[in-house]
Amino acid sequence: MKSIRTLPTVLESLRVATCRHSFCLKGLHAHFSYLDERVKALTKELEGQVAGDDLATRLMTIPSIGPITSSALAASIGDGKQFKCGRDYAASIGLVPRQHSTGGRAKLLGISKRGDRNQRRLLVQCGHVFINSLERQTGKLAQWVRGLLTRHHPNVVVCALANKLARIAWAVAYSHKEYEAGSDVINA
């Protein structure tokens, strides 16, 4: 990002030999600047909308969940009463293990990937964000993730964390309370 913003000064100092390359680069820089300003404006508008929504504001108290994810989850969860438990919500977006059963023996496979793909993608991205900032995280959730990382591949841990975040989001919506890192809301 920094190098893109300094492109005009670099072009001036290099005095690019062909005008065609310079013209193309300046045009691309102008387009990037426009898109950057547009993203900033839309982000500010979304943050304003989230600030006016009680549920979205409460969902943002969950670690690694930002305004985009909280607004999407708030729109789909509502008050949470349409789901019996957090697992039902996680299952509705495809974040629970797929099962193959025969003769009374159940085998758990990867996540089912059924349901709303957008919410699943957002929660998986939140899981990646949480793991990337794990050294700054504290609390039971961070301890749980650290324990999983010692035993499983990071991608498996990300999916497990996305499942846990979905269950926590349901518990926050259902209980009408903010997320508390040390509470039993994690076990929802």
TrEMBL record:
Q: Where is the Transposase IS116/IS110/IS902 C-terminal domain?
A: 57-133
What name appears for this protein in its UniProt entry?
IS110 family transposase
* An example Gene Ontology biological process: DNA transposition
Checking InterPro entries in the record gives:
Transpos_IS110 (IPR047650), Transposase_20 (IPR003346)
What PANTHER family would the database entry show? PUTATIVE TRANSPOSASE FOR IS117-RELATED, TRANSPOSASE FOR INSERTION SEQUENCE ELEMENT IS1111A
Q: Which GO terms describe its molecular function?
A: DNA binding; transposase activity
Gene source species: Pseudomonas brassicae
A Pfam family this protein belongs to?
A: Transposase_20
